[in-house]
From TrEMBL:
This is NAD(P)-dependent dehydrogenase (Short-subunit alcohol dehydrogenase family). Belongs to the short-chain dehydrogenases/reductases (SDR) family. It comes from Sediminibacterium goheungense. The lineage of its organism: Bacteria, Pseudomonadati, Bacteroidota, Chitinophagia, Chitinophagales. Pfam families: adh_short_C2. The keyword Oxidoreductase applies. Keywords: Oxidoreductase. One of its GO terms (molecular function) is oxidoreductase activity. It comes from the Bacteria.
Length: 238
């Protein structure tokens, strides 16, 4: 991969896949900025990766904050949006607009970032969004997530037609071993993920580093555009 000396922003770079992208991009010799919704967490994660990594605060659910963020910062070559979460629950639970928050983050949050950042991306640069296996293999109770991952993947296609010279792609992770599962699965986390792994053709769930290398590939290849790259161990087929 020809990926060094680039300016890379990882939105949601304080944990899991985003953190792995920040680490890998830094190790390849790029200038990395990462964000968290909490400034101390962003700064601590950045420092843990390397002295020249910058940690900033950003919540992409706040459109005004997103605009102020990009107005105050220099441009980037590539932006990866990892920000997102998985919501489990019945359609009839709670209030619809609250349940749709995770969808809002993936669609409106990502669009807010593109709107605010598009004129600060260098020609030949790119955005990478995060979809997920629940687009193709909906998971019971995770209907919000399925809607959100599908929206993120479709963004990579529709935006290609809007902005020449900039590329738009999405990574679509299958089950990946990240802190996201800690709260969702609690003490059964490792048992459930081990059971999931046995159902996959590769007999393992993905590591955040395996997803990260796909993100960096999408950034690095100047002819890959409008693509959704699945990193799911063949999970869509079983
Ligand atoms: N792990 C999987 O199996 C899997 C599978 C398919 C898709 N995905 C998707 O991949 C992405 C990364 O997942 P992960 O497993 O690495 O999760 P994670 O470890 O929980 O990390 C999520 C990251 O997103 C950030 N974030 C969340 N909401 C945000 C918001 N509104 N604005 C800005 N940042 C926000 C978090 O930052 P702070 O909490 O520090 O603010 C954190 O850095 C998510 O979109 C997830 O849905 C994951």
């Amino acid at each position: 991969m020809n990926m060094h000396n680039k300016k890379i922003l990882v939105i949601g770079g304080s944990s899991g896949i985003g953190k792995a992208v920040a680490e890998m991009a830094y190790s390849m010799g790029n200038h990395v900025t990462l964000t968290s919704r909490q400034l101390p967490k962003a700064i601590a994660t950045a420092k843990s990766i390397g002295n020249t990594v910058t940690g900033l605060q950003l919540d992409i659910n706040d459109e005004t904050q997103v605009e102020i963020f990009f107005n105050a910062i220099e441009g980037f070559d590539h932006i990866y949006i990892a920000a997102g979460s998985t919501k489990i629950g019945a359609l009839t639970d709670g209030l619809l607009h609250q349940n749709l928050q995770a969808f809002h983050t993936r669609l409106i949050g990502s669009l807010s970032v593109v709107r605010a950042a598009i004129h600060r991306i260098s020609s030949g640069g790119s955005f990478v969004f995060t979809g997920g296996i629940s687009t193709d293999r909906p998971i019971p109770g995770a209907w919000v997530s399925g809607l959100g991952t599908a929206a993120a993947e479709q963004l990579a296609r529709v935006l290609v037609m809007e902005y020449p010279y900039i590329r738009f792609n999405a990574v679509s992770p299958g089950y990946t071993d990240t802190p996201m599962w800690d709260d969702l699965l609690g003490e059964n986390r490792n048992t459930i993920l081990a059971e999931v792994a046995q159902k996959l053709p590769v007999k393992k769930i993905a590591s955040p580093q395996e997803v990260a290398s796909a993100v960096l590939f999408l950034m690095s290849n100047a002819s890959v555009n409008g693509e959704v790259l699945h990193v799911d161990g063949g999970g869509r087929l079983v």
